[in-house]
Amino acid sequence: MQGSQAPNEHETVGAYALGILDDAEATAFEAHLAGCEWCAQQLDELAGMEPMLAALADLPGTGSTPAIGESLSAKPSPRLVEKLVDEVSERRALKRRKGFYLVAAAAALIIGGPLTVMAVNGGGDSGQTATPLAATAQTTFDQLPDKISGTDSTTGASATVAMGEKDWGTSAVLQLKGVKGPLKCSLIAVGKHGDRQTLGSWSVPDEGYGIPDAKADKAKKPLYIGGGTALKPNEIDHFEVMTFDGKKLVEVHA
């Protein structure tokens, strides 16, 4: 019977990565590896396969999983080696594809601007829907039944808070105009007994929000910020828009 053909050097990279070549075979492959860029790349791709040696524990003749660096008492078949190599290669390729998709998604957000930011709603794999976050706050503001407004003649800021009672408290969306930055602000609900609860916080850019004579169109538009408080609507005395350094921009009485 004709003897089996010696494996091609390129096909030996998986067995070398698994550490199952004998000394002569390993020496021969290393000599080939020194001048083969393809095998060097494949070996780099297969780096870290040692933990998969545990999968060989069920082979006949292996009583337990060998420690890393120890030789196996029985060599796996070429088919098993090929299967392990293919599995690791596919997993690494999948990881690279996922990384590419994340980079592409991040680039899309940067190019598209804030209106393209998507929120995923829904519980299962099917039935998930994508909703623009910027549109959601304004839509909710329009839909909430109760609206109260206030203006500060000193700061020039004006605010309208739309509210809706919930089982857990109050859902609210702030519409803010006449504010220039740079600022960092918070919307605070103040209860009739003096307790204060922060519904949300945000940053105001230099050009601001809701500035009628602004050069940039986006600065002419008001800011919409949604939030919630454990206070019921009838427990709220007023709302305050405060800067992080303690300055009150505008107060809205409930």
TrEMBL record:
<dbReference type="InterPro" id="IPR041916">
    <property type="entry name" value="Anti_sigma_zinc_sf"/>
</dbReference>
<keyword id="KW-0804">Transcription</keyword>
<dbReference type="Pfam" id="PF13490">
    <property type="entry name" value="zf-HC2"/>
</dbReference>
<keyword id="KW-0812">Transmembrane</keyword>
<protein>
    <submittedName>
        <fullName>RNA polymerase subunit sigma</fullName>
    </submittedName>
</protein>
<feature type="domain" description="Putative zinc-finger">
    <location>
        <begin position="13"/>
        <end position="40"/>
    </location>
</feature>
<keyword id="KW-1133">Transmembrane helix</keyword>
<dbReference type="InterPro" id="IPR027383">
    <property type="entry name" value="Znf_put"/>
</dbReference>
<keyword id="KW-0805">Transcription regulation</keyword>
<keyword id="KW-0472">Membrane</keyword>
<feature type="transmembrane region" description="Helical">
    <location>
        <begin position="99"/>
        <end position="120"/>
    </location>
</feature>
